[in-house]
Amino acid sequence: MAAAGALPAEWIKNWEKSGKSEFLQLCRMLSENKSHENVTFRDIQQALYELANHVVKGNLKHDQASNVLSDVIEFRDDMSSILADVFCILDIETSCLEEKSKRDHFTQLVLACLYLVSDTVLKERLDPETLESLGLIKQSQQFNQKSVKIKTKLFYKQQKFNLLREENEGYAKLIAELGQDLSGNITSDLILENIKSLIGCFNLDPNRVLDIILEVYECRPEYDEFFVPLIESYMYMCEPQTLCHILGFKFKFYQEPNGETPSSLYRVAAVLLQHNLIDLEDLYVHLLPVDNAILEEHKREIVEAKQIVRKLTMVVLSSEKTEEKEKEKDKEEEKTEKPPDNQKLGLLEALLKVGDWQHAQSIMDQMPPFYATSHKPIAIALCQLVHVTIEPLYRRVGVPKGAKGSPISNLQNKKAPKQAESFEDLRKEVFNMLCYLGPHLSHDPILFAKVVRLGKAFMKEVGTSKKLNSEDRMVKFQSDGNKQEDKEKMEILFSCLLNITDQVLLPSLTLMDCNACMSEELWGMFKTFPYQYRYRLYGQWKNETYNSHPLLVKVKAQTIDRAKYIMKRLTKENVKPSGRQIGKLSHSNPTILFDYILSQIQKYDNLITPVVDSLKYLTSLNYDVLAYCIIEALANPEKERMKHDDTTISSWLQSLASFCGAVFRKYPIELAGLLQYVANQLKAGKSFDLLILKEVVQKMAGIEITEEMTMEQLEAMTGGEQLKAEGGYFGQIRNTKKSSQRLKDALLDHDLALPLCLLMAQQRNGVIFQEGGEKHLKLVGKLYDQCHDTLVQFGGFLASNLSTEDYIKRVPSIDVLCNEFHTPHDAAFFLSRPMYAHHISSKYDELKKAEKGNKQQHKVHKYITSCELVMAPVHDAVISLHLPKVWDDISPQFYATFWSLTMYDLAVPHNSYDREVNKLKVQMKAIDDNQEMPPNKKKKEKERCTALQDKLLEEEKKQLEHVQRVLQRLKLEKDNWLLAKSTKNETITKFLQLCIFPRCIFSAIDAVYCAHFVELVHQQKTPNFSTLLCYDRVFSDIIYTVASCTENEASRYGRFLCCMLETVTRWHSDRNIYEKECGNYPGFLTILRATGFDGGNKADQLDYENFRHVVHKWHYKLTKASVHCLETGEYTHIRNILIVLTKILPWYPKVLNLGQALERRVHKICQEEKEKRPDLYALAMGYSGQLKSRKPYMVPENEFHHKDPPARNAVAATVQNGPGGAGLPASLTINAAKLEESTAEETDKLKEKTQGAVKVINKAANATPKVTTSNGNSASNSKIIKEKDDKEKSGKEKDKEKKEKTPAAIPETKALGKDGKDKPKEERANKDDKTRETKEKTPKSDKEKEKAKKEEKTPKDEKSKTVVTNAESKFAAEKEREKEPSRERDVAKDMKSKENIKGGEKLSVAGSLKSPVPRSETSESEREQKRRKVDTHSSPSHSSTVKDSLSELKDSSAKHYINHTTPALSKSKEREVDKKDLDKSRERSREREKKDEKDRKDRKRDHSNSDREVPQDSTKRRKEENGTTGSSKHSKSESPSDSPRSNEKEKEKNKSKSSGKEKGDSIKTEKMEKSSSGSKKESRHDKEKTEKKEKRDSAGGKEEKKHHKSSDKHR
Question: What's the predicted TM-score (pTM) here?
Answer without folding.
Answer: 0.65
